[in-house]
Each structure stands twice: as C-alpha cells, then as structure tokens.
Amino acid sequence: MILFAASEIYPYAKTGGLADVAHALPGALSKTLPVASVMPLYHDVDRTKHAITDTGYSFDVLLQDVAHQVDIFIDTKTQTYFLYNPILCDRQGLYFDAYGEFGDNDLRFGIFNYAILQMIEVLDLPITTLHLNDWQTALAALLSKDKLDKPYKVILTIHNLAYQGVFDKAAMGALELDWHRYFKPEIMEYYDNVNFLKAGIYYCDELTTVSQTYAKQIQTPEFGCDLQDMLARHSDKLKGITNGISYEVFDPGSDDALYVGYDSSHYYKKEYNKKKLCKAYGLKRSKRPLFVFIGRLTPQKGIELLLENIPKLARLEANFFILGSGDEAYNAKFTSFGKRYENINITVGYDETLSRRLYAAADFLLMPSIFEPCGLNQMIAMHYGTVPIVTDTGGLADTVTDYGAEQSGDNSGTGIVMERIDAEELFTATARALALYGLKKRREKLAKANMRLDFSWDKRAKKYISLYR
Ligand code: ADP
After folding, report:
1. First to last CA, the chain
2. Mean pLDDT of all residues in the chain?
3. How far is the CA of 90 from the centre of ligand 1 (A)?
4. CA 316 / ligand 1 centre spacing (Å)
5. Is the pLDDT score of 14 beyond 80?
6. Residue 379 predicted with pLDDT over 80
7. Residue 189: other Cβ atoms inside 10 A
8. Is the CB of 388 under 6 A from ligand 1?
9. Model's pTM, two decimal places?
C-alpha cells in the first residue's frame, strides 16, 4: 500500500496546486494500487461536509518529555486519514496568517511528520511506499530511513523549490534530531539553520519534481534556490514527471460553479458564461475579449509585470479580471487599483467558485510566471477552452506551445508563449492575443483542440507507479 502524505489535499484544504495534485494523483493511482492519504485535520477542514469520522485511535508523539496527543480521523470515501493535534491544527490558516508565517511551523510539522510514521504502526497499515510532498512532509524521509529505521521505500516530490522549510537550528533539539548526525551541510544544515526539504532530498530513495524542464532548471543557480549543487549531486535519483489535472474536478461539462456547462462541441456556450460573469462583476461590453489572471499574488506569478501593465491594459478594447491573494502588501497594492478602471476587475481573495467561472468565461488566461515548477492553471484553462498566455519556463514550457504567426497554416500550437519575461513582452503577448481574437475561426479551432488534449492523470500516474516498484 502507498501512503501519500501532504499538507493540503483538495477538497479538504487548498492553498494551491499541491492540494489539486494530492487529490488527483492518489485517485488515479487507486485504480491500480491500494493507496491511502494523510494530512492534518486543520481547524478550517469541514468535518461534517466531508463525512470525516473519528477512528477512535490516538497516540502520543513524545518530544522533549512532552506528550503531543494525536487523534486519527478518516474519510473512508477517499481513504484519507486526518491527524489532529492542537498545536498543528487549532488555528485559522495552514502555514501563515495576516501577520506572516506561523512562528512554530517547525514544531507543528515536526509533530505531523513523526505522527505520520506512528500512525502507520498504530493502525498496522501494510505500507510499502511512503510518498512525501514538499518540505511539510520531507522530514519523514529522515525519520523513516534513518532515525526510526523503517522498511518503506520513500519518494519525495518537490512541488516548489522556493519553499524549503527553513528554521532556526533550535528545531534540532525541539524535534530530538541528533545534532552530530544530521546538522551537516550535506544533510539538513543550511546557513546555520535547519532545512527540512534538504533532509528529504538527502534521505529519499526517489526524488521527483513536477515537470521535466523544472527538473533540469533546479540544478542551475538561476532556479536552484541555493540547492542546485545538492540537487545536482542527487541527480541520479531526480526525475521530472509533469503534473496533470483531475478531469472529474475540472470538467466544464459538469462543473456546478459554471453558469452553463459546455464541451468542445458546444463551445459557443462559453460566450454565455462570459456574458453572465461580466454582468455579475460589473464589466461592461461583454462581447470584448476577456483576459483573466488567477493565482497567488507572489512575485513568482509575474504579478509585478501585471501591475506595471495595468494602466496600459486599461486602454485596450478588452476586459480583464484578476483574482488572487497573497501577503498583506500585495493584497493592498492590488486592492488600491480597486475600481479605478471600468474594464478591469481586481478581486483580492481566494474563491474556488469564482475561479472556475473565470476559467469558463475567459478567452485568455494570463500566466506570466517568472518561474513555474509545473503550473495547473494553464492546463485547467486549456481544458475549459481558454487560450493560455505564458512564459517559456518550467512546466509552462512543457505544456504550452506557441500557436505561431497569425496567418500561419500550422495549427499545432496551443497558446501564446512570451519570448522574454518582462512587462513589455507581456503587453506584446496581450496584443497578439487581441489579434488572434479577431480571427474567430482560427481561435475557436485552437481552443476546441485544446479542450480535447489529454492532461488527465492516468498516463502520468503510471510513471509514479514505476517508481514505487
Ligand atoms: P501554485 O500551486 O503555485 O499556487 P498552480 O498553478 O500549481 O499554482 O495551482 C494553482 C491552483 O490554485 C489552481 O487550481 C488555481 O485555480 C487555484 N487558485 C490559485 N489562486 C486562487 C484564488 N485566488 N482563488 C481560487 N483558486 C485559486
């Protein structure tokens, strides 16, 4: 049995793509293999809505003579286990709140990682492989392979190298990690701090990341976030496996959030979604092309390029909708544009329903990421018949190809790929999109072909299965 451990899983808790993957990949795997998943039972998880029940099993994670009680819950429908401990779970938010990162994330996720391994024993689960994801579960590799010496094969997937779980070295003592054994530059020491992700990279049997291009990029200084040398040293176990999307979760035909469902044979219904959305959110002249941005408001997503362009975009014969949330400073910056332009709606917040309506209503998705491990938005957009405008980096490079010159006969491209990552090029790409919008036949042919592309997990899950064996 595979145990898939993650700090967020859709639909229980989601801040980004990790949750989507942690839902869809185990679902696809379970068609072939026995799989269970595990995540924290955060305060915000709706136990009633998801029919999460108490297994009645509890145990203690003992650290520095303090017994941290952990209770095990389950959603039997999805075979997802939930670990409840007050320090880990009793607060709003997953990793941070309006004041920034929680100061005790090392202890919180330290408890979670010990608890994952103890849970296996308590429930006597027949686990053969532990699939860990990002820094929040990376420490379980060290615990499993060395400190607690378990027999499981350990896979670690890096969804975003920019987040590594770096903490004050006092965490070594607090989490009872042997100083002499583990506080080394090749294991988990990092500029005199501890780095959870490094411990995972060092101890895992197989290391994956979420696209082939990103797997290469992270071994270079530009994208390696200071771990490029370590990753190059471990390159024999590093593979890129491009993410997919769940065709059950993201299906324009059956998505309840949409004003009206559609498929590639009823593409014209997209127009109705656009009309309704524009009306509901105060965008006039809904016949104009609609560009949307959906994402975390962090520099990674190219939001500086977007901010710089807003006054220029406002002068175009087009509507724009920006949905996102980030730290207070960026939220304030975007909010300050408010309702300044009649053709630009900026909504600061996290709203799953609205995001789906945007994918359905839009003609174009703006995704000018500075770096992008894989990116799901562009695939969701394509599946909803929305043409992506992307930078040529990471997973975007692996999933979107440029549609070529406006009048070219070559119809193999799937979107608009920016040649450079700068504000001017983003504007140029937007202008190219406007030209494409004018070529109705060509645009619709491209969008409909995109809807029929296969971004499903089934094919991709097989690549993980071969790693587990
Ligand atoms: P990342 O994990 O870096 O945030 P991905 O492209 O991998 O980016 O995945 C982002 C996921 O989160 C997509 O499902 C996207 O629709 C969703 N998402 C991002 N921001 C928002 C938001 N503000 N409201 C609703 N959904 C959002």
Report:
1. 11
2. 96
3. 24
4. 26
5. yes
6. yes
7. 18
8. no
9. 0.96
